[in-house]
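User: Study the fold:
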Amino acid sequence: ERCTASVATLQAALKDGGEEVEVLLALLCLGELGRRVDVTTAAAEAVAAELTTDRASESVKAAASFALGGIAAGNPAAYLPFIFQRVGDDAKLNYLLLQALREVIMSQSSVQGPAPAAVAGEPDDATPPLSEVDVQSALQLLLRMCESEEEGVRNVVAECLGKLGLLAPDTVMPVLATNAGASQAALRYAAASASRYVFVDRATLADAQIEANAPTLLGLMGDDDRHVRRAAVLALSSAAHNKSAMTLALLPSLLPTLYEQTVIRKDMIRIVDLGPFKHTIDDGLELRKASFECLDTLLASPTLAALLEPAPLLQALASALDDAHEIKLFAHITLERLARTRPADVAEALPSLCEPLGKTFAARLKSDAVKQEVDRHEDMLNGAARCVAAIECIDDLVCTEFTEMVTKAQKNAAVAPRIQQARQALADGSASRAGGDSASAMDTDN
């Protein structure tokens, strides 16, 4: 009775159309209540109405989407058909309705993972399971919507497909693997993007299907479409982070393709004529950025890092040091890491790394540079300086090219203080660690 009264009060708040904060609170509460009790049809209709009303702000519409998903999760038989029927009717509502569907899928216990032990006497909050018919209907709807022109819609579709794969792996995972070979790039992109969401950091009932289909899905890194390749690279990053044991067996066959994505391709660079000036657009930048992020993830894993052979890794790093600002950031961080963890490999490849580092130190800003350009320049100089300081710590380092590059850089009044600061920061860090080790040893002796 108290739940019924609460639902009526919240429904009235929507009907009265009070302050936005009151409407938001009512929607969020109805969504949470709807997961646990079957709210009235009138309340569900009131929530759905907030998706289309002209007076609703984007925040209210997002809350209404969440609420509709919660209500449908609590009683999928009654309210899920509404979502299935309305998606596609109005392009403006597709994203919100798919977000509601995402809430339904995410509410399933097999997607959420094992719940903490329930407190004695408390009811089970698990939502009703989706039927096979619901799963099939959701799958067909998502496959239909993956060709949407809106990027936001495609991203939600991918997440829903991935989470649906955790919920019904025997049904969904083979379909994703089949679509990896589809002629339509949209279906291949959806398959690659969805696979990013099936790699979760816990054991699931879907693991057998995921492992069986992972080679096909991650193999999309070699696709003809750059968007598909990037989606597959992001999926590999997810797999490396969350399923390192599963990734271990696949990585040797995937690494050559991953390294290919780090190369600057001239055929992906175009010049757009904007009248008084021309603008260069690098269509491969986001793909290279995702690839270096993936390499950074692999290097952070003790198990997977051992599979990264020095020659192709350092070759990719040399290219990254001479790439765009976003790529250089990862290159500097990675080179610092490798100077500590793989000093011999860095020392051997150092001649090829000196030229791009020297170019960074020698770069000059234009007289009319804006603040963003100045900040980027500062980032590059500081990052390269930290690399120099880290490389200088390599034992028995002998490299003429490196010595000449550093000597030349230190003649630059804008660079020399940065290198000295990087050296001092490294020395302070080493002293701090040494002091901590000494204190720990004394505590042990006492």
